[in-house]
Amino acid sequence: MSIRQLKVSGVRNLQPLEITPHAGVNFIYGDNGCGKTSILEAIALMASGKSFRTTKIQHVLNHEADRIEMFLEVDDEERGVCTMDSLRLKNGDTLLKLNGSVLTSQAEAAHWLPVQIIDPNTFKLLSGSPEERRQFIDWGVFHVEHKFMEQWKTFRKQLKQRNAVLKQKELEWLPTWTAGFIESAEVIDQHRQAYLKRFKPEFEKILSQLDESIDVQLAYYRGWDKDTPLVDVLEKQQERDLVIGYTQSGPHRAELRIKVGKLPAAEILSRGQQKTVVSALKIAQGALFQQESQRRTIYLVDDLASELDEKHRHALCKLLESLDCQVFITSIDKEKLTDVWQPSASKMFHVEQGVIVEE
Ligand SMILES: Nc1ncnc2c1ncn2[C@@H]1O[C@H](COP(=O)(O)OP(=O)(O)OP(=O)(O)O)[C@@H](O)[C@H]1O
Question: Binding positions for ATP (predicted)?
């Protein structure tokens, strides 16, 4: 998957832009506040409906504008050349199209535009809440298991219903919703376990290519005791569940524990080491997606130089190049990009006060 043409208007300080990126590496450089991150943010918004900088999409909208409009021509390994359009109004209304036909959900757009983001907030994957890591696992499952989104929605519905029954203390309905909850919970857990089994060796390989000296272990906790069937756990916890009006155990409590020895990696590793580990997680996810779907991820790397020394910048860039994916990398200095890496296939863009120019 690569973006062949990108048109964006209404995003932060960016002047309406139109670029034809390279299918390989795209360097974007410019001074602080010129709009580099906003370009990546626009691509991420198209892909996920979310910004990686804010939970409030209105903040992404240019102060003077009433809509964000985007047009992408993409070259997809499965579908060939296609177009993606999006229109997001100030009030939140959104229209997404693929080849001119309206998409019914953001998940469909996410399917057609797989992106991985490595940015200065990337640490959150290690130090943030378990939700961050669950979403990470689920991205991997979602992009290879087409039924996963529906199964996940079913699970959320079962959980919500069971919690409602617990809150209302409707004991006569509890066995029915508990049975449904268990069934859907096990489906989610099996997908996650299977995914992580395939993911771990890929992650270890990629991490050793980035930095052999970092030794971290990934351990999956499924949200309830690994040796006890969920039915038994729920039975044992029923009384307490009724008191708190909430299901204490299940896939909504799953966690991907990332450790150095017995301690959380986020509390042991330096900032640079954490960035390396998170980069390895994201690159491994993209690489596995590529192997399993024969499609490629687009990498958005914001502020390459932050936290990484020259050696690690070089290793990261070489690795991205070896995946043969489309990459967008930003940096304040042109030199910080080109001193460590001169890829054979690349384009250079300069951004100044919201205007992007290809060099
Ligand atoms: N909603 C908005 N409307 C207009 N301008 C905005 C809006 N939100 C932020 N800005 C401005 O747009 C610019 C956004 O810049 P962006 O974060 O993309 O810069 P950058 O080149 O990545 O900078 P840095 O190198 O400091 O990370 C900033 O100058 C900011 O003040």
Answer: 30-37
Same structural domain, 58 and 97: yes
Q: CA 9 to CA 71: how far, in whole Å? A: 9
109 is a domain residue: yes
Reported as a single tens digit per residue, the pLDDT across 278-330 is: 999 999 999 999 999 999 999 999 998 888 898 999 899 889 988 899 999 99
Does 10 map to a domain?
yes
* Type of residue numbered 335: E
The answer to whether residues 104 and 177 belong to one domain is no
**Do both 201 and 327 map to the same domain?**
no
Number of H helices, E strands in the chain: 11, 15
Cα–Cα distance, 152 to 190 (Å, whole number): 12
Q: Are 14 and 42 in contact (CB under 8 A)?
A: yes
Same domain? 184 vs 274: yes
Tell me if 36 is assigned to a ligand binding site: yes
Taking the whole predicted model, whether its pTM rises above 0.80 is answered as yes
Q: Which of 6, 10, 100, 13 is closest to 47 using CA atoms?
A: 6
Distance between CA 55 and CA 139 in Å, rounded? 18
Name the residue with the closest Cα to ligand 1, atom 16: 35
Q: Residue 279: which CATH number?
A: 1.20.1050.90
Pick the atom of ligand 1 nearest to 14's CA: 12
- Among 15, 29, 37, 58, which residue has the most ligand 1 atoms within 8 Å of its CB, making it the best to mutate? 37
Residue 153 to residue 159: CA distance in whole angstroms: 10
Give pLDDT, residue 340: 73
Pocket of ligand 1 (CB under 6 A): 12-13, 30, 32-38, 59, 61-63, 303, 332
Q: Is 32 annotated as a binding residue?
A: yes
On the question of pLDDT at 189 being above 80, the answer is yes
Residue whose CA lies nearest to ligand 1 atom number 27: 32
Same domain as 194, residue 88: no
Q: Are residues 231 and 280 in the same domain?
A: yes
